[in-house]
Amino acid sequence: MAGTASAVGRRLQQARTRRGLSLSELARRAGIGKGSLSEIEAGGRNPTLETLYALSLPLQLPITALVGETGRSNVSGHDEGPVIIADSGMIAITLDVRHQPDGSVVEVFRLEFPDGCEHESPAHGPGVRETLTVSRGTLRVGPIGRLRSVTAGRTRSWLSDRAHRYRAPDGPAEAVVVIISQPT
Predict the structure, then answer these.
(1) Cα–Cα distance, 108 to 177 (Å, whole number)
(2) Binning pLDDT at 50, 70 and 90, where does residue 170 land?
């Protein structure tokens, strides 16, 4: 895990430097402590999913730019990337990341939710769209205040440029989500 923390810290520091942000300024914009940010950049702390999202927004980057895009191979032969476990218990596994010629980024994640899990995701960048297909169980998903139930085999899409939520009310659930970020 130390290698992962070091790699995330290195990517974070490079992204911050490219954006011309000081440690203090990025910490302020992301709403996290300067000491915590310094520890993450030094590879001494593994950031949570929530922290990664908080950092990716002011850096104007998809989260996969910080955690990495590829990793081990799964049975189907597609690359699987880093596994991120949120404080809520939700598990996000990077399946694919594609950088499009127009500058947009398409990220594909497999999401796993334990029974009763409720995960709130902060707003992503302007115009970011999520399309989620449930593969097992039932999820209530969407922008806060507009959650809809999605059962296995069904799909829901929404703009995720504001806070949104995933909830597994009736047992464990799994889904695949495609996140499309527009060029900045």
Answers:
(1) 6
(2) very high
Average pLDDT, whole number, for the chain?
A: 86
Q: Report the distance separating Cα 181 and Cα 24, nearest Å.
A: 26
Please, which residues have CB within 8 angstroms of residue 75's CB and are 6 or more apart in sequence?
none
Residues in CB range of 86: below 8 A, 6 or more apart: 48, 49, 50, 92, 119
Residues 135-149 have a mean pLDDT of: 97
Is the pLDDT at 71 greater than 80? The verdict is no
Q: How many domains does the chain divide into?
A: 2
Burial pattern 146-183, b for ≥16 Cβ within 10 A else e, equals: ebeebeeeeebebebbeebbbbbbeeebbbbbbbbbee
Half-sphere CA count of 26, side-chain side, radius 13 A: 28
- Whether 104 and 174 map to the same domain: the answer is yes
Task: Note whether residue 155 is domain-resident.
Answer: yes
Residue numbers of the domain that contains 99: 83-181
- 75: in domain: no
| CATH code, 7 | 1.10.260.40
What is d(CA 53, CA 87) in angstroms, rounded to the nearest whole number?
13
